[in-house]
Design a protein that fits this description.
two-stranded antiparallel ribbon; about 325 residues; 8 strands; nucleus; nuclease; about 15% strand; 6-stranded mixed sheet; alpha/beta
Length: about 325
Amino acid sequence: MKTKSAHFIFTSGKPMSLYDQVAVALRRLGSGDSLVTIGDSFGLNHSTVSQVTWRFVESMEERGLHHLQWPTESEMAAIKSKFEQVRGLPNCCGVIDATHITMCLPASEPSSNVWLDHEKNHSMVLQAIVDADMRFRDIVTGWPGKMKDWLVFESSNFCKLCDKGERLNGKTLHVSGGYEIREYIIGDLGYPLLPYLLVPYEGKELAEPKAYFNRQHFATRMVGQRALMRLKEMWKIIQGSMWRPDKHRLPRIILVCCLLHNIVIDMEDEVQDELSLAHNHDSGYHQLICGASDAKGASLREKLSLYLTRTLPP
């Protein structure tokens, strides 16, 4: 990035330093303000703001991807321990959730219908698997917002690795009665119940072990909600409706916002959770229920609900 820094200049004719360029890019991603607004505040042409921001995005993709990785074995042990401390779920490796990045597209745009979702917004979906400290550990983006959560998941590389036994394949936990609890992630009813993905029990009048499981599951799952809220609060370029974004560039901007989200968490002494987080990360969207169920997933969920209420046979 340094080699070309002289190519960017302020309207005054002064060349932009590397620090200037990073400041402009972070302002664009963090504020979501228009190119013109940011250009005026820095003394730059709006085209320069756009070019500098894109150079920053490309540089982050080249050099920053190590900030968003699936945990190592030792990292995973710490993550499981933290999840268990939340509400007692043992061997839990993450929370999966999804959100919509909305866009303003004119109806005259030929591809606009492709991006029209079930809530009549134009949007792109972001699926994230989050650890207990709100770090993103796996993301998928680029799909139109009308694609249902479970289809985004089933098309993901993460799902394929799990099905092949190459993800969530770590240590099994042995509990009373000779039962084994494998590694798993948790999600809401927008996902299928799988051997490695546990969703809540459906229904209202549930027996206590099931009702208790749902309460603990919900409380643990909130870390995913908070992570996505924090992402959109801190990197406002993806919070509101983006005006006619380039659909090829938008997934890369979303990825870089996720990388920056993780970098901020890594720089903190403790995870700061005091952001207002006033709004739902997916305001206006109603949950679509998947309903698909796998027998091994049902068995694991049953064992966990009995384990949590301490009613497993000895």
